[in-house]
Amino acid sequence: MQKNFERLATDSHSNARRGRLTTAHGEIDTPAFMPVGTQGSVKGVSPRELHELNAQIVLGNTYHLFVRPGLDVLKHFGGLHNFMNWDGPILTDSGGYQIFSLAKLRKLTEQGVEFQNHIDGARAFISPEIAMEIQTLLGSDIAMALDECVPYPCEYDYAAQSAEMTTRWAKRCREWKRRKDEMAKPELADSATRRRADSMLFGIVQGGTFEDLRKESAQAIVDLNFDGYAIGGVSVGEPEEEMMRAVEWAEPLLPGNKPRYAMGLGTPPQLLELIARGMDMFDCVLPTRLARNGTAFTTAGTINLKNAEFILDKNPIEENCACDACREFSRGYIRHLVKAEEILGLRLITLHNLHRSSGRRSATSLPLTYPLLAALRAARRSTTNRSYSRCRDSSSGCRRRDDGCTVARVLGASFDDNTLPRSRVTRNDGPKTVCAAVAPRHTSNFGFTRRSSASSHGRQAAISREFGF
Ligand SMILES: [Zn+2]
Asked: pLDDT, tens digit, for every residue of 172-216?
């Protein structure tokens, strides 16, 4: 099998790129949003449904699976693909992040980390080599090197020592993989061993919020020559500017011909910014987590189906949406299910949200549209500064004008073929269906909206919609 990452298009105005990553279990079009299957399941959604939703890869949490059901069970079932009956690519984290955030009584040494799990308090030890063994047993297509994710804020000296140890751990993971790959030479290997050699290993850049440490870490990890690179230690409570800076410092040092993964990120506006900064892969719990709160993504932003305004609403969550929830059920009925705490209600919203976020982008039929991404970001800044003027597109009912109106439409089309005709039709269909830069009623429901003005509500709704959130 050929392990590669192919860049299909790059932006001339930003670092954004479109690409395709080939794994042992299929291809992934990037930028890619990876639904999170924490416990070997994307909550409430079967693998068959994930395929129907065009999800191309799921993320499995090594720590959770290691703690429960445990490696003996997973080995008995022949790995995570067989266990959960998912035949597409799987990325597994190394377990490090959860050990540092969930487990109790950690003891960190150069050798590895000893901890008590959060379920029954049983003691366990994970070293870089053991993290690789576990991910190999799971059958991961993309494994992550073990790292230490430092908290925020973090003292410089600790962040420096930690990043150096993460590099040493990364080297041990790389060495473990190299030895295993050698064993997989065709003349020596059985098929299971060869499959294992097809897996990829990503290194993780750390360094906290310090420029020199981020750069040193990126260079050191790149020198070890991984199949892809992740930016770790972000989204740990730091301000968004710090998060973006961490990515900006590392990105120039990462080879352009390898995929880049921003770990644990982010909100839709953050994803947009990260794509523009050259990131390719993201794991995102928002579609499923918000669904369980009754929140659905629509083209005009998020709506909470618990609200009384939907009691008598016979419309689907979203007009023209092809998901099962929208084809078959009304907002009023789904609202009733959610209020009555019927499992089906939350499941239907989850299916809808994942459908919105997993739309497969066509890599072949579309022109390079990323210059539009830059323009959309500029529009975002202009709306932030309230420097927009009146919308010239009166037929759409838009009350504002910024380049995002036009830009977002095309960019949106580039991210989801299926939305193209619909978007063009609905957004020029009269004042009822307005340009995405308006509709303050449909405010986004992510944490950042609390301090937002009406104008930024519209901006966030625009970005949310264009990215299917
Ligand atoms: Zn739907």
From this structure: 999 999 999 888 776 656 666 556 568 999 999 999 999 999 999
C-alpha 229/C-alpha 225 separation (Å) is 9
> Which single residue is written with the structure tokens 């050191």?
220
Q: Can you give the pLDDT at residue 444?
A: 28
- Where do the structural domains in the chain lie, given as residue ranges? 5-284, 290-358, 385-467
Residue 69, SS3? coil
> b/e string for 28-37 if b means 16 or more Cβ within 10 A?
bbbbbbbbbb
| d(CA 57, ligand 1 centre) in Å | 20
Active site residues: 93, 283
Ligand 1 midpoint to CA 322 (Å): 6
Asked if 466 contacts 412 with a C-beta cutoff of 8 angstroms, the reply is yes
Scored b (16 or more CB within 10 A) or e, 163-194 reads bbbbbebbbbbbebbeebbeebeeeebeeeeb
Task: Name the superfamily (CATH) of residues 5-284.
Answer: Queuine tRNA-ribosyltransferase-like (3.20.20.105)
Residue 323 CA to ligand 1 centre (angstroms): 4
**Residue 443 token pair:** 């405010």
